[in-house]
Amino acid sequence: MIISRPQSGKVRTRRNIVMSFLVGLFLVAPWVVLPDTSPLIRLDIPKRMFHLFGGLFIPQEGLILWFFLLTMGLSLFFFTSVIGRVWCGWGCPQTIYTDLFDRIGRFVLDSKYGKKDASILGKYTVYFLWIVVSFIASFHWIAYFVSPYEMLADYMRFSAFSETYFYFTLFFTAAMFIDIGFIREQFCRYACPYARFQTLLMDEHSWNVTYDFKRGEPRRDGKTKIGDCISCNMCVAVCPTGIDIRDGLQVGCVACGKCVDACTSIMAKENKKTLIGYFSLNQIETGAKIKWVRPRTVIYAILLSVVLIGASIQLLTRIPMSMIAASNKSMPPILIPDNKIRAFVALRIQNIAPVEKEFQLSAFDTRHGKEILIRSGEEGNQFKLGSGEMKSFSIVLETQSLTEQELNEGYLPGSIVLRNTQDPEEKLEKTLSLSLPRK
Length: 439
Ligand code: SF4
Ligand code: SF4
What we know:
This is Cytochrome c oxidase accessory protein CcoG. The protein is α+β, with helices and mostly antiparallel strands.
């Protein structure tokens, strides 16, 4: 386990701002309730609904999920190829919380933090505070799945212990305490899958934390000093993953920039510019400007734009209702007097709008352009559903009188239409093939 030295500087200050914003966002977002009483963001697994910025999504909307995952993947490809592992150093919870745990450790133990001779009481105080932070973070993580207001009320009433979420919170608290407190940088170096393939996404033009070996080497060796690097090893001492950036780009580098601040302050004493900074390898080797536009970045940008346009079209044309219709296999259509056909259909309808809506059902014989009568048990085949509410029921379809020729056609192509009564243009249509009974 590596406890790196703290380091102040410009990068540190900027990271503090970004990290405070991200932690604040993480802690506040699950508590936000919109004016229509829906949560700002929540993946409600028992109800199989995803609330996001006022929209309500259900698992049947696979295309939107597909676009979402593709956008995430391509964004990772694009940003890594342009600005390296910025996610690792500035946005990854592993890095942010390791930083927070170190601050707590230093606050309690000061310079004894990470040392074997630190007091036992001090060490256990740090562990206790780490557990408290882990619990708060885990509570908020679970709050993205369960209402934090309900959870808090349960905790206040001491009734949370019988709820599933309580055991998930305990599990995540223990996992976070062990991971951030003791596994720390080992996760980045040996377990993180993103660290494994990031080298494939970057090239010599990617903007990264890089050592200027042209100026720095040969580094000082004893009293011999040729290059600018004075071998103070501060860049290694501050590194949270314990690597030496002077050995080149490595899987272990999380691009946190602490070595940039360290070398900047050391070199300032020598009246020189930092040897470690956000450069591209090509910039160091040739002195040329960073080449932002290159085949790799252009291809990722085009793919990302195509997916974003597709996702936008999908979202803008989305109809916030869902209907599944299936003929009842155990009750095939029957012939009734006047050459009419009676068929039995099972329906599952869900309102996926953030507000209550009234719906109306209608059905058609699409081959002959005739309306089909629906018996749904609802007056005027109209019914109301609250936001997210689902209704499963059976309906009976009754065709108009069919001619002998129509009856001999073998099947009847039909459609069931679900309309929003307040906005008839908002409708869903499901096709249905009704097999006709032989006379
Ligand atoms: S090498 Fe520098 S940027 Fe990379 S992890 Fe270490 S301190 Fe952070
Ligand atoms: S901090 Fe700068 S000067 Fe010191 S060892 Fe690292 S690269 Fe060399």
